[in-house]
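S., here's the first fold you wanted:
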Amino acid sequence: LYTRRPDAYASFKQEGEDVAVIIARDTRNGKIAGFGACAIRTLFVNGIPTRVGYLFGLRVARAYLKKFPILHRGYAYLRTLHQTRNVACYITTILEDNLYAQALLEKRRDFMPTYQPVGKYEMFALTTGRFAQPALSRHSSYSLRRAALPNLPALITFLREQGQYFQFFPVITETALTSGGFPGLRVEDFWVMLNAEGEFLAAGALWDQRSYKQYLLQGYGGYFKFLHPFARLLPIFGFPALPAPGSILAFCTLSFWAVKDRNPAIFSLFLEQITRAAASYPFLLVGVHETHPLRSILQKRPHISYRSKMYLVFWEQQQEFSNNLREDNRLYLECGLL
């Protein structure tokens, strides 16, 4: 159960630089019939900082799903917002097994923007702490350190240089990290891997977001139901332990991460060290698009994963923009902002 406690509205408003929460209300009884949200963020597109909207949180109460034009009215309102917000395009994700939502939104309708699939996005849950893969002692010339304010300019430069290679990598600024632009995220939550000369090789943040959104574990189904009695043994084999039903999942996301020149060996070492640095959490989440050049490194590690479909969403006047997206770049979607 995905929740946004203690204040759902405040939680939604923290998801971007400018967030619109759209509510459809039944005027006869005041009940909420449906809602959705759009968070505008500055992301790299073709290497240039660009305002992009992220559509999320779309929900329609079952009683209103087929009887009332909720989607018609909702997207009409979104279109009026679009005309005043100078957004280049939108992106969104839908869980891979949510076939109903995929069919609903992919169907071309005059009142809706185009939902163009742009591949799969996969979330990996990796075990942490003493059960994580050991750091490689032969690479003692590399070190992992917690970032501090004096490192901030170099950290920002590194993230920009490496991030602009990807489409939709967030544009990180010093102001955003020092004035609450990403709720609950501090400069000290970033970890950097350096070589003997002090050069940045990799960086990423361990972001705990439970203060404003949570996952409540209701129970297990499928093969997880049969694995749960053996949950304590799973970390021995490199897999995250399965939490008890009724608990709030305790985890962090590896966010805003970048590796110098997308080097697989560096990323592998960084993962080994960052999972040990995250020992206070049972597991961490890291997400990659299927086009990410380092995805294979994550696939080789013991993990539990789930996938979503990613979409580029645009109105007809944005068609030219979508056609001009560079294809030589890879896609990055920040799992901490989903």
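And the second, which I think is the more interesting of the pair:
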Amino acid sequence: MAARPETTTPAGSQGLAIAAALGALISLQTGAAFAKSLFPAVGAEGVAALRIGLAAILLGLALRPWRLRLDAAGWRNLFAYGAMLGLMNILIYRAFATIPLGIAISIEVLGPIGVALLASRRGLDLLWIALALAGLVLLPLGAGEAGLDWRGMGFALAAALCWGVYVAVGGRVAHLGGQGVAAGMAIAALLVVPLGAAHAGRALLTPDVLATGLVIALLSSALPFLLDIHALRRLPQKLFGVLMSASPAVSALAGLLVLGEALHPLQWAGIAAITAACAGSALAGARAARPD
């Protein structure tokens, strides 16, 4: 039986839900661009510490995750979820330090695509795999003779792997709802904040850095979470998935507008291919989940 009929949401309400989903996506990628602008002051690790630490405080105050009551297996799943969340953020920020934002996010989204497609047995999914691989090949080709920094590519691929594991583990804690997300963020903060503090030291506590970090935490974590909750309650799964597939393109636009990161046409083509693979994977996943 379907979890939610697609025809029960009024058109006006669905329009607001679509706007919320797109707003969450834009907020998330704009926050990532502002995060990169703070790297000269505190480094990638310092920015990750600010984002995760402040987001953990904001979500903790709003959702009070300390009220959770779990058994040993539940806590193991939650700690794995939080660890992947923290590691994924550090790795993608390290990637941002040496390659453009849109390139890094385009590589990172291959993680959840891979999880979805590896679990599928549909022949059409070979097309989405081919598109994703073609896009991955085009990204460095557009960088010219200098190519893309291999360390940035490596960090982005490692972040993609963590995101894939994060998706798999996240399914085990999804029933905890917002409190599970807040608890996972707190666990991630326990791992990331000491690393960021060791790297950036007292610079993390300067008023300008803290203020910018708060903006990043709001844009990259708190606001997208609240908007996504609104959208997920009112949108069909396939529509939400297709909207989220625009992440690589939106991140590239954020990099261009906020950071001035202009990409080569071949790289835009690669991003378009990966975006299409994301959308196709989302649609295929929604069809596979639909009852016969």
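Why I say that: Residues 1-7 have pLDDT under 50 and may be disordered. The longest helix spans residues 11-37.

Talk tomorrow,
H.
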